[in-house]
Amino acid sequence: MGIGQLGGSIALGGRAAGLFDWVTGFGRRDDSLQRVRALGLCDATTTSATAAVADADTVVLAVPLRAIPGIVDSIANALRPGALIIDVGSVKGTAPRDIEARLPPTVMFVSCHPLAGSEHFGPDAARADLFAGRRCLICPTPRISAAALERARALWQALGAEVLTMPADLHDRVMAAVSHLPHVAAYALAGALGQLAPEVESAARDLPTTSLRDTSRVAASSSAMWQDIFLENRAALLPLIDALATRLDEIKEAIATGNDARLGALLDAGRASRARIVPA
Amino acid sequence: MGIGQLGGSIALGGRAAGLFDWVTGFGRRDDSLQRVRALGLCDATTTSATAAVADADTVVLAVPLRAIPGIVDSIANALRPGALIIDVGSVKGTAPRDIEARLPPTVMFVSCHPLAGSEHFGPDAARADLFAGRRCLICPTPRISAAALERARALWQALGAEVLTMPADLHDRVMAAVSHLPHVAAYALAGALGQLAPEVESAARDLPTTSLRDTSRVAASSSAMWQDIFLENRAALLPLIDALATRLDEIKEAIATGNDARLGALLDAGRASRARIVPA
Q1: B147 at A interface, C-beta within 8 A
Q2: Which residues are CB-neighbours of A257 under 8 A, at least 6 positions away?
């Protein structure tokens, strides 16, 4: 359900790994499904959610975060008993419990988050090896069974990912730090360069730097997707945005007042906290 | 003069290209020069600035920005007539005029800035091909001669770089946008992650994301070097830090108030300005 970078990569990778005999791709927009067919990501496509899941052993919810409840309600009665349902949402919060509550007890539900997206999106960004060597987080829900967890784990392992389980609350706080805040920073940085004087913007275009390219890379991501993520995870994200704004202001003050020692200490502190969190 | 990533790479690349018969490396600290010798970056090393330049056809000033005037004063009377002197400073401002004024009229001075640094620094980060395919900016000074410009251009071209000339003032405004502001953003982001709760920091370490890695990459740079650059270029940099702080605050407000449309517009604007400035 939803054949973008993640859904399409699960389709491609799952077929390559022999997990799936047949993949039906569901989408709302026919032009997008046309592209899915042209790329050969699925065996068939449909704009009918119930038709998509009618015969399915495995259902992957890879639609935007806020579209999930509506999709779940529309498929709940069409699901095959014993089917495995997974979502791949980037924010958990109360969503996994909510999805589980909307599903019949005859199916297995496992809430997953593979850490494998990039700034590219849409069906063209799908790759069979997207999950190879990456981590996939599973946030257990109240009704999760050992059998369901094992099926989901086997699926991700077949796609090349290593599975870790984590409570939804901790998941959201960690993702706010290692993913959502970096995206906010990149969008803000890119936005700050939107009003350069014409001669500066023109010269900037001719002088590509790796620092700007990398620091702003994820600002090329889907705005619609990140808008959802920021809003859904606002509770964990807002305090970190405040911390970023405070740090930025401290650096600015140290530069403006020519406070050498203070500026050095602030840069050293950033360097040190990055070294603790980001593997070399 | 100064055998870090840039100075060491010019030494290595210049010898590989047949530009230099002999390279003497100057540094203040003997432990650093010991490393320079162990890496084979120079034919000889010395802690005497005058001894280093006495016989030199070409002198490369690759010491930290604020150390340049002192070094220039100490070598001015020892320079060979006709020698080419270049600096590789990341901020120009009035520094090139100042260096030129301190040098005897018998030498040729050209102020250069190769866009080739990375977050790695020190002699171990030197590479013969560091400048291959990169740009090098030359900021002409009042006394620059066509012959001096040609010698400097030939040097950078032999190292694989493409040379562009640009007024020092425009250089500093462009670099504030494409390099200095991204470094401020990366240091602030990394610093903001310095006070995570222990369980969040611990989980973050186990969940490497490409977004945090790339967005914060340049916060691994030399704090001492960037402290100098931020302070030297404060006039061009501070208005951009203000723009970044404003944009960050706008994004925060849109998230806090759940203003979907406004948040989407802010992210779209960041995406669009990045697309204008950063080549795909």
Answers
A1: no
A2: none
Side by side, which strands form the sheet with B162-165?
Answer: B58-61, B84-87, B108-114, B135-139, B162-165
Q: How far is CA B96 from CA A238, B100, B153, in A?
A: 44, 6, 17
Please give the structure tokens belonging to residue B240: 């951009």
Q: Interface pTM (ipTM) of the complex?
A: 0.93
- Cβ of A178 within 8 Å of Cβ of B279? The answer is no
CA–CA separation, A118 and A130 (whole Å):
9
Same topology, domains A5-166 and A171-277? Answer is no
A103 touches chain B (CB under 8 A): no
Mind telling me how many Å the CA of A280 is from chain B's nearest CA?
9
pTM assigned to the model: 0.93
Q: Which amino acid is at A81?
A: P
Q: Please name every residue paired with A139 in a beta bridge, in sequence order, or none if there are none.
A: A111
DSSP labels, B168-191: HHHHHHHHIIIIIHHHHHHHHHHH
Closest residue to B187, CB basis, from A189, A206, A251: A251
Domain positions in chain A are 5-166, 171-277
- Bridge partner list, B164: B137
Q: Domain A5-166 classified CATH 1.10.3720.10?
A: no
**Cα–chain-centroid distance for residue B28?**
20
Helix boundaries (H) for chain A: 5-16, 30-38, 49-53, 68-75, 95-102, 146-158, 168-175, 181-192, 198-206, 210-215, 223-232, 234-256, 260-277
**Strand B84-87 versus strand B58-61 pairing type:** parallel
CB contact under 8 A, A270 and B194: yes
Q: Which residue matches tokens 């699960």?
A: A10
CA distance B28 to B36: 12
Cα separation, B109 vs A87, in Å, equals 63
A:B CB pairs within 8 Å: 318
Tell me the pLDDT of chain A (280 aa) as tens digits.
999 999 999 999 999 999 999 999 999 999 999 999 999 999 999 999 999 999 999 999 999 989 999 999 999 999 999 999 999 999 999 899 999 999 999 999 999 999 998 889 999 999 999 999 999 999 999 999 999 999 999 999 999 999 999 999 999 999 999 999 999 999 999 999 999 999 999 999 999 899 999 999 999 999 999 999 999 999 999 999 999 999 999 999 999 999 999 999 999 999 999 999 998 8
Q: Which of 1.10.486.10, 3.60.20.10, 1.10.3660.10, 1.10.230.10 would CATH assign to domain A171-277?
A: 1.10.3660.10
